Every structure is written in structure tokens, then in C-alpha cells.
Amino acid sequence: MNVITIEADQLSAKWVGCYGCEAAHTPNLDALARRGVRFANAFSNHPVCMPARASTITGRSAQHHGVFYNGWELGTDVPTFPGLLQHAGVQTFGVGKYHLECHSRGAYNDVRKYGFDRAETTEDIRAGDWLDWVEREHPDCAEAALATVWPMPHLVSYGPDGRNLRQEAIAARAKLAVGGGASRPYVSPIPERACQTRWVGDRAIAMVRERDLARPFFLKMSFVDPHDPYDPPARFVELIDRERIPAPIRTEDAGVLGVVHRLRANRFVGNHADLTDAQWIDLRQHYLASLAFLDEQVGRLLAYLDEAGLADDTAILFFSDHGDMMGDHGLPTKGAWHFDACCRVPMILTVPGQLGGRVVGQIVTNLDVFPTVLALAGVPCAVPIEGESLLPLSVGESLDRPDAALVESYGSYGDEYGPFRARSVMTPEARLTRFEDGHGLLFDLAEDPDETVSLYDRPDQQGLKCRLQGTMLDLITRQSVHLPRRHKHPIGGH
Q1: Domain harbouring 164, CATH code
Q2: What pTM was estimated for this model as a whole?
Q3: CA 44 to CA 299: how far, in whole Å?
Q4: pLDDT tens for residues 152-191?
């Protein structure tokens, strides 16, 4: 069987239509869920970009793949599931965002070393394969594309001619007045036909079309959207009804606010502290519009699979690396803030021949992607990993493991101490978070699904707290069994 994984970046489950978001415009993802299985409680085991992606591709947590936070790159001595597929004779293709190498090191990432026969990449910084394609195929859009490029220091010598792309990007941004960031969204200045998200859709379809027809294939289709700066084309912003967008979750609880205030010691987090609900709704509208743009590309791929007669031979797994707080409790994006919006991600699996419309409540994680893809492709998993295949759950069976997930953070935006290191245990009924600075959070999710009242220091809740601490220790022990620990040194920045 052919297998396609579709990965979003920074997408919370709570923002997808089939997960209950009334403001979302996700008809294709919703249709995928109706055709397949929707995992209601899927979590990112490490809700920061590079650690999460390293865990997904290796099936191992940070202690075993060595990527503890952004800036620590994945080595080639840890097995990856594309590598095992490749070794078994499956064609392996990839297009879009990988973020297994540092943005600060270079614009061209040769990710074929992770097991891809063919790969075309585009990352947050927007230089590299996508930008070169725009300049080559859509020269009339080149200046607008340049205006969205992150002016990284290494871009002073870009490409074979060593051009100063950094200066060009700064000049284009100033000329076109392109601003933005995690607190100031904007409409893309680039025509849709040349946008990064459209390019991912185009190239994914092209790779499937150009495959060797005699061999099964695996395709990784990976988007940067809906990651900040939340800059979709205007057409998609107009699809999102602002009146249906919920305001951020707020609380007056001292336990929650104490943690939030400590997190705001980080400058990036603190810059969002004074945003109003109206400003967050503006951000949310652009975020949901970016998701709608992504959803349209998923629809284009699904239509091509039907047209090419591949739908009955191709399994699809959709997920995200982690979520985005989008202003809940006044917090932006992702990191060591282990709230629902940051850690719970969409996970949708469609398998030809299986009944669709099933919703699975048992907790799963991104560690389960590795064995699931191998099982779908019929390739044995001959290396030690921590995840388990989702196929039994997809047909109504259960997994023989605790219905709980361990979520860890060791640093976010260069912070490696205090509240920026945290461990959480997620269960369907409750969540416990312990920070390195000694503070913690405890939520009874049955009574408080929005996580607004922390029970961590309540004397009458110490029994629940102790039970969850025991579950956490059990998960940590399971994480360590049969797998050697690795210690790596950082290579670069975000």
C-alpha cells in the first residue's frame, strides 16, 4: 500500500472543524475524518518544533534522538521510518518543511540523508527551493516573495553566485511595507499561484505523478502553515467569519496566573502580554485562514489521487507537530506551556477498505507515526522505538499501554531553565504539569475542560496529584526501557 503523511505546523486540534471549531473552514480535512478515523486525544510528546519533528521521524523521545530544543539537529545515526521504507524498496518522497536542521545554518537542507529518494524543502525562513522556484517560474512575484523571507545572517551569501539575499529581503520588505510576526498578522503580498503553501501542494502532486509506477511510494507532504506570521492570501481571510471566532480563554486563578507570569519573563512571551481580545481574534482569523489555505491543498491532492486511480491503494495520515496557544491565558505559539492548545494536535488516519467516521478517544502521540506508517506499508519495524501502530485502534481494538501521554519541554526560545523546562502527564480526565522551578499545574478536565483552575496546591486534591505523579514516573520508566540515551551538543539557533 502507498502511504502519504500530511503534516501541518503549529496546528492545534481545537482549531479544526471536525474537532469542533465552528469558525474553521476545513472541508477537506473534515471529509478525510468522515472517511477515516479521528483521534480525539492525540498529543505532541515535545511541543517545540525541532524536538517534535525529530520524535515523529524516529519514533523516539528526546533522550533517545538527542534533539532537546530548537537548535539541536537530528543526526544520521538514529533510524528513521523513511530510511526503513527506503531500505525495503519503497520510493520515498518529501516536500515542504522538515525542520530537522537549523534555520540559522543555511537555506538549502539536504534531507535525503534521513531516508528520502527525492526531497524539495521550504522552511520558515522561505529561502531555498521555494524561493528559487518563484524567481524561476514566476519572476513577476519574486519581489513579493523576497519581502517575506526572514533576513537571516547567512543569507549575505546565498546560492551559487553568493548574492546578498539578506539585503535584498530587507529592501523588498521595506518597499512593500510587509510587516507581521506572531503578534501582527498580514495578508500575503504574493499571488496565490506562487505562495509557499500552494507550492507544497503543486510539488506533492508532481512527485506522485512522476513516480515509478512499478513500486509503492511514501510521500511526506509538510506545510509551514498555519505557523506565524499568519499571512494567508486575502481570499482565505474572507472565508473566516470573525463573529464565530471564540475569544481567548482567560482566568483569574492564582495558580494559573502565577505560572503565566513566570513564563512572561521571556521577551517573546512578554511581548504578547497586553494584546486585547480583539487583537487575538484578528490573529485567530488569519491563523484559521492559513489553515483554510492548507486545507485547499489537501483537497487538491485528494482529488488527484481519485483522478489517478490511487485512492483505493493509498493510506493517508494527517497530523501536526504541535499546537498554537493563540492567546489562551495570554500566551502565544508553543513551548513549555503544556495547555491543550499547545499540546493536543489533530490526528486523522484513512485506510482503504476500512469503515470511516470512527472517533478514537484513547490517547496517542506523534511517537506512534513511525510504526503506523511502517505497518501501512507492510514493512517490519526492526529497530527499537517507543511508539505503537495506530492500526489496531483504527479497527476498534485497544493498545496495551496506559491511556496517558508524557509531554516534555527542555527549552523553548533559547531558555533552558526554570519554567521553560516542564513535564506533563496527559490523561482523558486530568492533567498534571511539573516545572523545573518547583511549581506545577493540576486540572480536573471533566470539571474544567478549559484548564482555568489549578488544583495543584489544594489539600483535597493531593490524592489525584499523587496518582498522576505515579503515572508520570511509569511513563518515564517505559520511555527508558531498551533504548540508549543520547547527549548531543547544540549546532545552531532556531
Answers
A1: 3.40.720.10
A2: 0.95
A3: 25
A4: 999 999 999 999 999 999 999 999 988 766 678 899 999 9
- Split into its structural domains, the chain has a count of 1
Q: Are 332 and 269 in contact (CB under 8 A)?
A: yes
Provide the Cα torsion 155, 93, 391, 52; round to 10°: -10
* Share of residues in the chain with pLDDT > 90 (%): 84
Range of the structural domain that residue 88 is part of? 2-480
Residue range 248-300, pLDDT digits in tens: 999 999 999 999 998 888 888 888 989 999 999 999 999 999 999 999 999 99
Give residues with Cβ within 8 angstroms of 332, minimum separation 6. 182, 183, 268, 269, 272, 324, 325, 326
Contacts of 211 (CB under 8 A, 6+ apart): 91, 93, 217
Is the predicted pLDDT of residue 482 greater than 60, yes or no?
no
In a domain, 489, yes or no: no
